[in-house]
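FAQ

Q: What does a record look like?
A: Structure on top, sequence underneath. For example:
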């Protein structure tokens, strides 16, 4: 490795005037609507730049607004140019308070007109065409500075039926009752219909029994998959939004869990399924379970306006064409009134600390804004975390650019891009994917959204992280084969090293680390339903559990991990080195080095030298100095 700062090239710095001085905001391309930002270009003196400026284009438009930059001096063989942008100047152009823009630097110099941009925080790349040089700029309304239970904390995700059985709740009538050690039932082949009617008996009282265990991991919030009444084990086909499923203990169990968790400093976040309900529900009632009412049985039903029928009653819109999940028209006023006056009013009163929004990109922007307004009215600290699998700052769904992170909808998202990038890096050394999923997303997201997004390694929708890091992909295997596949001892040992490195890394990155129940205990399994097995009580991998506890304890002790700035110091196919730095003044920064190779690496940073073992991570406090971003090393 070598010094990353020796190359004389084009750089962009940005500053914001704050409390009597300028603050460097060069790592970001997302700003509050009330901010005024000074853009500074550092150009090599040899290029004899005669004119330059920013060409800004509102999203979806062709017209470009040009802001000239003035020359204001030379610094270390670089000419400096600057221009000031008021974010309100941009938003006035589109007639909105917030918006997405793209800009590039256009430079006239001795070699002609050149275009610079790209998505690296500071370094500008040259492009042959102006379209390719575009650089994202998001203007958002101010995010509130709250959510204390997430900043610096850890979230634990629980699939309620599979975490802990208290023995206080019975099984559903007509369900397939499983032994705790059994494998979940599975369809004949991936994608085939499966009723998801096998139950293991986990319940909310069981979660409450294990709050001390969760506290020992450093957990500050529990996120639970749906808990409301429904016919299936996953409960995404809601039967009654106003009742906690009796097999989980009913309303009393949720109230008791929230109260007990609060005493231990743990918040409870629930899964909000607002895009669809179950066909077997009080609202649709296709199966007649709920008497004679429901939209399927009568156009006079109070719930009829919620749904879109193409041919009444058999043909209706449903989520991805799955007829047991009829889609709700989230823009219907009667539906919104129900959500505000009945659903949110009840569960906010229970002390629910926030909502994970299922399939957020299927819901309209206006509904998400409506939801946020009514959740925050009750509790300003409550969070809305959206299920968005891609870059949420510029996501297009159903032909429309989404406004998830403009400040009026979501607080953060599930960070699936980071999960995929970390796996690709640990397995294959994919640097560009990791760079974009870290400094790229952190540049494009409002900082507050980055700090609150959920950094997950596994979920109920993914292959178990241990399997992903050690086993074969399994894409060509049948479900029967997947149900019996396990890591060999050698594969498992390597996968554990990679898992430790991955979790240690997400604990140091901006965002909130998420532990999917059982990942810390060594659970294996391919995708749904094999990633939804039971927690292995009595058969835990305590080597992993102790590691997760250590990371949780270290995270609680490090203030920089709450809101500290992020910057990559060095990245190659074996070593990922980054800093978390104080937002303003501070005496130290936190250096994290991930070595994915099977050889130790000797690292020099400023005046310090240290060794990073094979497939491992080290973290060190580094004194803030001019040499903060210098690193060298060898294997």
């Amino acid at each position: 490795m070598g010094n990353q700062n020796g190359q004389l090239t084009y750089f962009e710095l940005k500053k914001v005037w704050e409390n009597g001085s300028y603050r460097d905001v060069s790592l970001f391309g997302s700003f509050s609507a009330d901010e005024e930002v000074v853009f500074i270009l550092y150009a090599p003196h040899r290029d004899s730049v005669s004119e330059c400026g920013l060409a800004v284009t509102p999203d979806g438009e062709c017209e470009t607004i040009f802001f000239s930059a003035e020359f204001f001096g030379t610094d270390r063989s670089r000419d400096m140019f600057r221009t000031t942008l008021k974010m309100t100047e941009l938003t006035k152009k589109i007639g909105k308070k917030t918006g997405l823009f793209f800009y590039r630097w256009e430079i006239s110099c001795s070699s002609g007109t050149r275009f610079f941009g790209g998505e690296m925080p500071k370094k500008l790349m040259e492009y042959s065409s102006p379209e390719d040089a575009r650089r994202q700029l998001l203007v958002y309304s101010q995010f509130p500075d709250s959510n204390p239970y997430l900043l610096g904390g850890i979230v634990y995700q629980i699939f309620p039926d599979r975490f802990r059985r208290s023995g206080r709740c019975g099984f559903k009538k007509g369900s397939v009752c499983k032994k705790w050690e059994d494998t979940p039932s599975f369809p004949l082949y991936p994608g085939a219909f499966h009723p998801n009617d096998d139950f293991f008996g986990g319940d909310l009282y069981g979660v409450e029994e294990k709050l001390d265990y969760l506290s020992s991991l450093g957990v500050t919030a529990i996120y639970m998959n749906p808990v409301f009444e429904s016919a299936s084990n996953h409960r995404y086909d809601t039967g009654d939004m106003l009742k906690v499923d009796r097999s989980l203990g009913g309303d009393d169990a949720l109230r008791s869990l929230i109260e007990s968790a609060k005493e231990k400093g743990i918040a409870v976040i629930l899964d909000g399924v607002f895009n669809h309900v179950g066909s077997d529900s009080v609202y649709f009632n296709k199966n007649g379970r709920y008497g004679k009412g429901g939209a399927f049985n009568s156009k006079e039903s109070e719930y009829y306006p919620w749904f879109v029928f193409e041919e009444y009653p058999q043909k209706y819109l449903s989520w991805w064409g799955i007829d047991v999940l009829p889609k709700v028209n989230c823009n219907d006023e009667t539906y919104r009134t129900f959500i505000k006056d009945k659903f949110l009013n009840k569960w906010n009163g229970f002390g629910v600390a926030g909502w994970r929004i299922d399939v957020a990109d299927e819901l309209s922007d206006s509904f998400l804004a409506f939801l946020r307004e009514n959740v925050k009215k009750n509790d300003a600290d409550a969070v809305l975390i959206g299920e968005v699998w891609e870059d949420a700052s510029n996501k297009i769904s159903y032909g429309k650019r989404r406004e998830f992170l403009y400040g009026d909808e979501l607080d953060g998202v599930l960070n699936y891009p980071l999960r995929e990038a970390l796996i690709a890096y640990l397995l294959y050394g994919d640097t560009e994917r990791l760079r974009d999923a870290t400094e790229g997303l952190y540049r494009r997201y409002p900082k507050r959204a980055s700090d609150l997004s959920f950094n997950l390694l596994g979920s109920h929708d993914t292959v178990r992280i241990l399997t992903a890091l050690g086993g074969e992909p399994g894409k060509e295997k049948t479900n029967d084969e997947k149900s019996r596949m396990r890591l060999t001892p050698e594969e498992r040992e390597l996968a554990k090293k990679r898992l430790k490195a991955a979790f240690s890394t997400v604990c140091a990155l901006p965002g909130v680390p998420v532990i999917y129940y059982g990942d810390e205990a060594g659970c294996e399994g391919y995708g749904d339903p094999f990633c939804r097995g039971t927690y292995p009580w009595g058969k835990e991998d305590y080597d992993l559990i102790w590691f997760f506890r250590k990371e949780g304890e270290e995270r609680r002790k490090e203030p920089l991990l709450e809101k500290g700035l992020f910057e990559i110091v060095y990245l190659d196919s074996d070593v990922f080195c980054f800093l978390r730095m104080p937002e303003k003044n501070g005496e130290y920064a936190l250096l994290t080095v991930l070595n994915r190779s099977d050889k130790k690496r000797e690292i020099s940073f400023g005046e310090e030298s240290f060794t990073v073992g094979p497939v491992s991570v080290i973290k060190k406090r580094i004194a803030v100095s001019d040499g903060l971003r210098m690193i060298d090393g060898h294997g």
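Q: Is there anything notable about this one?
A: Residues 11-140 form a domain with the Immunoglobulin-like fold (CATH 2.60.40.10).
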